[in-house]
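Troubleshooting: if your tokenizer reports a length mismatch, compare against these two reference records.
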Amino acid sequence: MVLFHCQWFWTHYTYMLSFLFTIEEINRNPHLLPNISLGSDIYNAFPSEQNTMENALFLLSGGNQGFSNYNCQTQNQSVAIIVGTASDYSVQIGSLLELYKMPQVTYGPFDPVLSDKEQFPSLYQMAPKDGPVIYGIIWLLLHFGWTWVAVFASSDMKGMQFLQDLKDEMLKKDICVAFTKTLPAATGLYSIIDTHFVIQMQFHYSNAVSSANVYILFGDLGSFVTLHFVEGFYLISGKVWIVGNPYSAQWKLVFSYFSKMLHSFHGSLSFANKKKTIPGFKQFLETLKPYQYAGDFYFTKFWIDIFECSFAGSLCDKIGDCPPNSSLKFWTNFDMMTTSYFSYFIYNAVHAVAQVLHKMLLEKIEVRSPEDADHVILLPWQLHPFLRKSQFTNSEGDYMSFDDKKHMAQYDILNLVKISNVSWMLVKIGEFVSQSPDNQGMAINNETIKWPATFKKTPQSVCSQSCAPGFWKIPQEGQPACCFMCDLCPDGHYSNQTNAQQCTPCPAQKYPNSEKNHCHPKIVTFLAFEDSLGITLTSTALFFSVVTVAVLRLFLKHQDTPIVKANNWALSIILLISILLCFLCSLLFIGRPCTATCILRQVTFALVFTVAVSTVLAKTITVILAFKATKPGRTVRWLLVSGASNSVIPICSLIQVIVCAIWLGTFPPFIETDLHSEPRNLIIVCNKGSVIAFYCVLGYLGILALGSFTVAFLARNLPDTFNEAKFLTFSMLVFCSVWVTFLPVYHSTKGKFMVVVEVFSILASSAGLLGCIFAPKCYIILIRPDKNFFKSLKNRGIRHSEISTYKYQ
């Protein structure tokens, strides 16, 4: 069994010690591989593909010379290889080992590239998938509201896979990448400084300083050191770094050898795998003696570097004898007593191979004779069927297997804190647990986090400031989704959350407040009697009604006077009553509408105005017949005496009644709630039902008024003593002017103001009829009674034919 060692500093030597400890533990176990000692060879993997391949050839040839397809030590042939933390090493030797179907078990981080069984059919990864750390980073970004971040990833396969997976998840959560930078692959101490990369970073930071305050870093120790050189020249500082690599051994190396660069990472956050323990390993390290592995050059050098002393039998020259009580537990420069994550998987990897060997030996012994039991030969390719199905529970109670089943991932969230100028520590501030993409949880204590000195509080990292409630995001063309503008929600819409993608329409019964962040219930409104307009119109209607009643009473009292008789007393009374009803019908338009008032207001308005206008028409016709009757001919005189002109009123009114009946029988008016005319009000209005019927009513009334105006206009030149033809003409001119003006004004208003316009038109037209026709007569009756006698008419020299006309009227 072989261990490819692949790190730079002595802290990684604990991987080899854990390997040796596991070998010894298995050999002491009487139940595992009984009567068989498990052996091992250790090969160092230098940061060079050439050296790595040479060591692989030495292994396969079983000697110190790399001759392929030749091994003179068949009895001691290795059956499996335990490979180090870097995936690159597994890739480099994978093709060579595959020629011999040599099982390769890696103890490094899980790499999706190495899980491709078509490319690496003989490779097995001990560590579970660490993909959930990406979900942890996403949770961390969402927790602090960071949506604008930069990403640095190593240029190896694992770094590129991490970068792609992270971008995919960030896209799902509307998190944007300000820029990405791949760090040069660094597999050794002397290959980490890439001049070309440093020049690139110089150009980037001198021309485009990113507004992102959060940088995500995924890589090995070489990535940290590379950034240290860039920072030293181009000041990449004052940022919050999130370290995505969950294997915290690199932090320990930074503490030990690169403490000067840590000021750039003060306040950084990182994810670290939960600490594991290997039973008995700590005691093994504490009792380790310098002579225990005297034949191992690296062990000797390791001991000399730590304690600056050597021991008898050392491969190095004497530099001072080591004290008898020297022990690693007294070495305080670095904590070697804590089991690293990789040491834990080396322990499990060796046990996994040992379990497989144990099962294979049991099967071979069962099919062989007892005398051949000691001569069992195991070949590397024979391990694969057992390795694929290998599963066991280790001494810590953790389930181990080589399949792709997802394990529950548990990470500690650590905060790098500066204690003094030379003292740093990682403080645990939270935990992240992930069983599946849909089953995750994070606990974090914000109060204990120490941020970089440039931030006095929790830093922000956004491309655009959040849109407050009441606003919505407007994407910017050619910019990432996180870069946007905020605009106030349009009328009738609101948003009650930050960074709303779009505004939500308020329900029909509600309206948005001035801040557009929530909706208020609309106020139910109508033209009420209590409103100022309602009071004004009601008072006006009642005032003119009282005036009309007074004029009616005046005409009843002076019905025997010439001026009342001359103007056809009966028609005047009908006209006054219809005008009174016109004033009173306007009250139906005021107050909360109901089904009855909706029907009555339109029908009553149509009928009473039809009576009023037809009465004016009858009065005009009567005036014309009275003056025509003075000429020879009995027909006109008969029409005048018989009162045929009075039949105009019922005929005209009957036509309007028929139109109204059709209206009510087909599509009558009804109550309706107007939701849109006024943004903040629910207006209760009367829908006219059939619009055609409504305009037929108005059209008929207009034709009747126009006819009355035409007839009165033609009679305007008749003798004007007690002749009201001129007054009738003027009254109908006022009437038509009001209703012609009504139509455009009515259609240009909304809500209850439409009702106000209609009521005003009713009152104005009715007042016009009352004033123009009856005001001159009231003036003579009340102010100039001397003119209200036939004697005064005679004194004025009026012809007898005119006086006869009054009598016929």
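Reference record two:
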Amino acid sequence: MASSDSMDMDPDVARRLFEEGATLVLMGVPQGTELGIDCKSWMVGPRFKGVKMIPPGLHFLHYCSVNSPGCGGEIGPKTGLFLDLKPRQILLASWDPKEEDLDFKASKDEEEVNRIRANLRDLDPFLGPYPYEVMRKWVSLTDRLSEEVAVNLQPLSGRVCAFSDVIPEIQMRHTKDRAEQPRNDTACQSMKEGLDRLPRMKQREGTELRFSVIPEKTYPPGATPAEITRCSMDLSYALETVLENNHKLEPLNLLGELQFAFVCFIIGNVYEGFEHWKLLLSLLCRSEETMRKRKDLYLGLIAVLYHQLGEIPPDFFVDIVSQDNFLTSTLQDFFQFASGPGVDGTLRKRAEKFKAHLTKKFRWDFDADLDDCAPVVVDLPEGVAVD
């Protein structure tokens, strides 16, 4: 990472960031490590010692450790953490080669931080400037995500990891534990038998993302068959349950959770983030009653989705997002509910504009019957034979 990568920005902005921006001092990060902040990453060079001129606020630091050249120099899975940086703050970390991770303990040593601050000018040539050109994009992806929400959602370990840290459910420290496990000295008769012989794994405590729990049943206890049918078509009961249990004081924080899940996936490579994003989106888009009474939540949802869908590479839709028509069918329900009776006029107009924008940009037809699998009849010119 070098300062030649730097920012084409207004000199006044540059001076203000130099004076008020935060500094990440990252000592000992191995050369070749992929390291980034927010929406940009670099390969670490031999002179790298951190990032300077970081706008105060919430940021996502992410990195992939690299094996030594003798081991092929392979890049490991991505690790990330959310940081809420204050003006002129200096955050100090050193690379732990054993854990292949950054250790921020030094930031608690006030004497060491003051020493770094006093020598910041000497350190300056080794600090890469914050990639200001991605600042607007980063803010648009996280404007609803507060530090409090990010801290509450990220693992207790403080690290968001692309691959789950799993351990066996049964530690098998004793002979008796091992004796009770399926024997592996005979050939498996089926794939299921083979899978059953594998030790059952669970995520290491403290490493799991702490997303809101989505109710398995979308209807209240003791619901009549008619209520079950209604709550399966309009997911408002399930959505209100999520809001009550997780975001009671500030319902709009659910949009922050939607942004957190998206950032974890699109930048942190955490597939669980994508799965949770889909669940939340389906819940929000298919809750007609809630849409009628929570106008601000849905105006915010349109703004959040506008920026998120603008950042997804076009081929990504083909590979993942368009699987099973998830996005088009979910948004089709949203637009149908948004045009229904009792919906706020401003929300209805905003939804119509958003629908037109997506139709133009991605060529999605939200008025088509997505369940209609009948073959398309094509009129052929006269004289064209069909084998």
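Descriptive notes for reference record two:
- The radius of gyration is 25 Å.
- The chain is about 40% helix and 15% strand.
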